Description:
Elements: E1 3-9, H1 17-20, E2 26-29, E3 39-46, H2 51-59, E4 64-72, E5 77-83, H3 89-96, E6 100-107, E7 110-117, H4 122-127, H5 129-133, E8 140-146, H6 159-171, H7 182-189, H8 193-220
Antiparallel strand pairs: 1-7, 1-8, 2-3, 2-6, 3-5, 4-5, 6-7
Helix pairs in contact: 6-8, 7-8
Amino acid sequence: MTTIVEFSVDPAALVLPSFGSRPQAEAEIVSLAACDGPLSQLLRCRGPTGPEETVAALDADPTVAEAGSVSDLGDGWLCRVEWDEVGPLVPYLTERMDAAVELAALSGGRWTLRVWFPADDDVSDLLRFETDTGVDAGLEVERVHTTAEGERTPFGLSEAQYDAVRHALQSGYYDIPRRATTGDLAAAFDISQQALSERLRRAHGRLADGAVADAAAGEEGPADER
Length: 226
């Protein structure tokens, strides 16, 4: 069973500490990941200034290597950001705790996150973040709940689909060359290769649908709920 935690932190623990201190500055990113090299990501930004001033403010932030404006959303701007560095909370969540950040939104000088953890006891590990890292993040937990059987996990996947994709990613199934086969993945879940392949196919279809929907929303504004 997966545990979902919604909490808020100061930007210094995540990204955009300088940008986040600007009056009425808002930003939203859909997912976060730690990596060895630069990470390029799209942000939905809002604020009292225009796109050029917003991009300049992003560029001036110490966590940003490069920023640019992609499109006008009507009520804000879609900006592309390449991170120079990220705060300690990112690797703590994604590497140490194997968590998935579903939503991260910056408003009022604070990041609000919705994060999925593989186990219930991971919540206590999250609460030890400041003690373990020595970082004063101002971490405040707002909501905790667990998924019911069959409930959708991040990105619209079922829990079984999400577990399969996550294990495939961690096992090197998506690497070139591959470091794991469908047989390896199927054995890990004690199911047939055909069942594993079908699970991944459905998961990839949902992920692709979500990516296309996000791109359409960026070009045309928010899409109607389906």
